[in-house]
Fold each of these.
Amino acid sequence: MTSFLTPPFDVSTWPPALAQVAPQVWIGLVFIALVIVAYFSGAIFKGAVRAFGRRTYHDPEQFTGSSWDLAAPVAQLLVFLAVFTGGAELLGFNFGEALVDFWPKAVAGLIIIGGAVLLATWLNKSLRAYGERANARHRVDDTLINFSASIIRYVILGIAILTAMMQFGFAPGSLIAIVGAAGLAIALALQDTLKSVAAGLMIAAFRPFKIGDWVEIGGREGEVFDITPFNTAIKQVDNKVVLLTNDKVWGDAIVNHTKFGRRRLNLYFDVHYDTDLDRALEILSDLANAHERVLMKSETWAGVDQLGDWSISLRLRAWVPAREFVQVRSDLTKSVKQAFDEAQIEIPYPHQVELVKEGISLKTGEPDKAD
């Protein structure tokens, strides 16, 4: 077989110094060209894998961090090695034959990892889709299903990596010992991460909240968007997503606003001391019971809460749907203000009275400038 490592031009007529280094320079150029070709081949294959992976997701943002996104650079490396190995054998490099003998095992490992990525992605998406359908049709809690889908995905990928390593000659016993030692080292180094996983299991088992609930955790309020073994995602009203590690979630106070289907609304209104309290309380009760989204109207309650320094505080309590709490509160607050204006019921605000005695302002304690 013709070797491409021999310069294709005659160097016998060249000066001795140039003729001596010309073969080495030519070999270097061939090697650099081989690396460039292998690199671009891997980059093209990586782009093809990512393009195919994006087509499997309806939302492009979900592709980031997915199995396909992680598999793309691995595929690029394998294609680079394949092209480099084949090119080295074709061009006549001495190490080409050794690399060719390595590839049957590498191909087997690639098939195992690629199949695991496809299986893990398919199972993860299928289980999550099943959970969404069950929740939409039968109101089944899909939190545990989504959490289990994440666990299954990581288990499949872990088993595939171990199996692929066996293809390279690692004995099962030695591999288990290595994994155990590595696992212990990782456990000591990543204690916080393991705490998050343990807390995630507690959240999945006891379910203080589920996907779709409106919660308040650690001062962050929003809708539970996703629960994984490592963190909980909360989507806020302005469409920002806050990621909280599960150990922080489990160790903090959890306020679940939508655990039950209804919430009790508490509104406070201040009125003047000269107000007809019976009339004001009647207005509050009538407005609440007239609202179409107020539930259990027989339990609507209005009464005097406290006597303040400059006003009387009235309190209105009514049951409303948990997911419409904010809207009903806004509607009733607006209606009460308009009804009080029509009934000429004054909503007072603090007043300050300044008395002047013998040229001294009782407000400031300084001489009155008017004197």
Amino acid sequence: MTLVECETLLGGKKQIPREKFAFRPSVYAIVVHEGKVLLLTNRETGRYALPGGGIEVGEPLEDALKREVQEEAGITIEVQRFAHFEEYFFYIDPIDAALQMFLFFYFCTPLTFDLAKDDEVIDEGDEKPRWVEIASLSETQFQSQGKILMELLQT
């Protein structure tokens, strides 16, 4: 049996059998406006996450990104340019699910600015869309990829 090391939702590392994994390509928006970035809060951990999520079969990346941002934050965006790609092995402790993820990050411009109310967010894991001052953030405040996200936010 081949084991793969994963980062867990609750912040640890865990060895998971390879056959347990599901494949999940995902896309995430880096939406910056006036020194602030659009972030959500993970319901389980209280850490920040970018708006975004799974790409549906047959769905173009940009369409998935626009849909996810609309569902999670209630705003319309324009996708500007590709920012980063990363492969990520993730274990979701509360539901015992392992994912091999391909994460695509894009810089985006907001076309609207009024965020969804907390009870309007359509997402199982994240909530509370907010514009957060970039200068107030550190890599440890993010659910995952904090170092990379802080580097991208400084460009």
Amino acid sequence: MNNLKTVALLALLSAILMGIGFAIGNMGGLIIGFIIALVINGGAYWFSDRIALMATGAKEVSVDEAPDLHRMVEEVASLAHLPKPRVAMINNDQPNAFATGRDAHHAVVAVTTGIMSILDQRELAAVLGHELGHIRNRDVLVGTMAAVIASAISFIAWTLQWALFWGGMGGRGRNGGGIVQLVAMLAIVILAPIAAMIVRLAISRAREFGADEAGAQITGTPLALASALEKLEAYASARPMNVNPAISHLFIVNPLRGRRDGGGDFFVSLFQTHPPIPRRIERLNEIARRTGMLA
């Protein structure tokens, strides 16, 4: 059911892109929007790992460069019954991590340099278990595709904004049809990026709980993951990372946060990239109690 919801949300993002095309150029624009959606989806599928690594500044590291990290990734991948993913590092003091790739055979796990000094071995292994959980659930492909489509929608809306500002569509406003089209384009400029962002964030929030549970099962240490999340959130709140907001949902905790996540207001929760950390910790504690994995 969760996979069906995600596919539906990705289809909605593509439909928004096609709707923009229709508003600009009627049926011809709709066809162009459909073609753009196909190209973007295809590009995000085949090059999702490269896109995410480039957008975050992550660099792949060899076994010689990071032997301990490679060993731990290999051990956790073995526990998850997955092939060992490639390993990358981001030169940033904020402790964080993400995984990307179109499938388990083309996956990459990336960690920041900051996470290596903040977490102990059990906590770091639990974080890697979370990321391997994303890979096992194929969340990483969906997350990158959603980010790329949403970015394209936002870019088109931004382009239209400047076209309207400089009067590029002024000649079409002399008749009723032109006015309707102008109003539609104004609505696109305002509403399309918001709708794309809400859909992208809804995909991310739904997947984080599943990766937490999968990570707890893989390593058998839900409490270590809970402890890691608490540390990562505290440091991320104090040291926001300079990354594109469109890919912020790929990380295990929101890298852009300037304050701790809340969880009470429904409207505010629509614009959160991740479920509130206290709620994630509560669920991990419940998993520990239910399964007896008190580690």
